[in-house]
Amino acid sequence: MRDLTQGNITSILLRFAIPIVFSRVFQLFYSLADTRIIGGALGDSSLAAISASSTFYQLLLTFITGLTSGFAIVIARYLGAHNEQPFRRAVAGTFRLGAFIGLALTVLSLLSLPVMLRILNIEAALLPESRIYIQIVLCGLILSALYNLCAGVLYGVGDSMTPLIFLIISTVGNVALDLLFVVVLPFGVAGAAWGTVIAQGVAAIGCLTYLLHHYPALRLHKADFVRDAAITAELLKTGCSCGLMQSMISLGSLTLQITINGLGETYIVAQTAARRISEILMMPFLALASAVGTFTSQNLGSGKLQRVRAGYRQSILLLWAWCAIVLVISYTASPWLIQLITATQSQRTIAAATWYLRIDTLFYFTLPLIIVSRQTLQSLGDQVVPVISSGIECVGKIIIAFTLARKLGYLGIILAEPIVWFVMVIPLLISLKQRMPGPDAGEQT
Question: Which of 1, 290, 296, 432 has the fewest CB within 10 Å, making it most exposed?
């Protein structure tokens, strides 16, 4: 277990965040492998079918990821306080609550799928393949939940390398299975879906086995699963707040996807490519925010409040430097990256996706303030303002989807995120100013 309450802050944040960056990149490769292989082997129509429905799966997955990151905040706080019994009960509560919620979401998502497919406004020609793909990956949602639970516990104790290792193993397996089930064996989009589910199972089981074998402190006993009302309430409050925050973001994207689905195959594929590249470019934002969350929680538990303030400031500066690199990538390599990801030969598709990237990345400098501030506030105990900020994002995207996007077409979609970014950052910065420890708080070591 790694102690984040001692040592150089920038070095600690980078060492913790870099494996998370690669973890998120390899997690994204699950969908990228499907995108590239299906686009190359089955064509743009099958790729559009998958893209049209996969936003629903991403909505559920982001809730689970947010939920487990919230659990990790609680675990890290007890670890920083060196309070063993509440720490072990927090870990036990994480697995108990996570398993129940993951299973419930799997069942509910499958039952609600027919309604959701109608809401998504998918073209009739794309609907059969969309239905097949999403049904299979939803069956594997519980495996994604198990992996994220294990990863959340490991992040909470300062280990960001182990989840990366198992994601690398499963991602390589996913690519191999996609090639086997789609290219060699003619299983179509169903083969890509099964490849993803099997690979997720490998990551989940491998990560759980390693956690139990290499961390004696995490080998839980029956007494650890005794329900502690205070700890359970804290886990639910923080976890559901983080999960709701993340799912609101995805819900806004889901609304935009409904509008995009009505624009036709060209823009569906263009949006898929642009969003995949955006997700890669945003990885450092999300990774460093995760690092800041664990760092803040451990130092808050140890009473080292000045390190909390310094960690926030240094993470923002690091991410602004990354924003400058992103702009260079966007304006030099966008067309090549789009073609690499989708295998499309359509110049209209490439031009639309490039247009999206080159406008959106101009406003990336607001993202560190949003993403890091949300995670810091969650770790400082503010469960309300981050959700309000994400609610502003969700509502803003819905409004734009039904107004600006209807009038301006794809340009309205492109402008949606930059507009809401400038609005949603305001409550975060106000709350952070009130809650952040002052310059004289605590002792920095």
Answer: 1
Contacts of 75 (CB under 8 A, 6+ apart): 87, 90, 91, 94, 152, 153, 156, 157
Judge whether 1 lies within some domain: no
Which tokens sit at 213? 């074998």
Smallest Cα–Cα separation from 195: which of 22, 26, 30, 46?
30
Please say if the pLDDT value at position 320 is more than 90: yes
Closest CA to 18 of 160, 198, 219, 172: 160
HEC letters along 352-403: HHHHHHHHHHHHHHHHHHHHHHHHHHHHCCCCCHHHHHHHHHHHHHHHHHHC
Tokens of 12: 């600690």
pLDDT at 445: 41
What span, in angstroms and rounded, lies between the C-alpha atoms of 302 and 259?
Answer: 48
Domain that holds residue 288: 9-435
2: in domain? no
Q: Which CA distances in Å does 279 have to 41, 276, 353, 435? A: 24, 5, 14, 30
pLDDT tens digits for range 365-395:
999 999 899 888 888 888 788 888 888 888 8
* pLDDT, tens digit, 9 for 90 and up, residues 67-97: 888 888 888 778 777 777 888 888 888 888 8
CA distance 149 to 152: 5
Mean of pLDDT over the chain: 82
Instruction: Give the span between the Cα atoms of 83 and 76, in whole angstroms.
Output: 11
SS (H, E, C) 286-300: HHHHHHHHHHHHHHH
Sign of the Cα torsion 405, 410, 412, 416 reads positive
How far apart CA 412 and CA 406 sit, in angstroms, is 7
What's the domain count of the chain?
Answer: 1
- Residue among 406, 404, 376 at smallest CA distance from 389: 376
In a domain, 441, yes or no: no
Kindly report the number of other CB atoms within 10 A of residue 292's CB atom.
26
Alpha carbons 396 and 404: distance in angstroms, whole number: 11
Instruction: Quote the tokens at residue 152.
Output: 């959340």
pTM to 2 decimals?
Answer: 0.70
Tens of pLDDT along 249-259?
667 666 777 77
Cβ distance 289 to 374 under 8 Å? yes
Residue 219 counted as domain residue: yes
Using an 8 Å Cβ cutoff, are 368 and 282 in contact? Answer: no
Question: Residue 39 in contact with residue 329, Cβ under 8 Å?
Answer: no
CA distance 325 to 15: 20
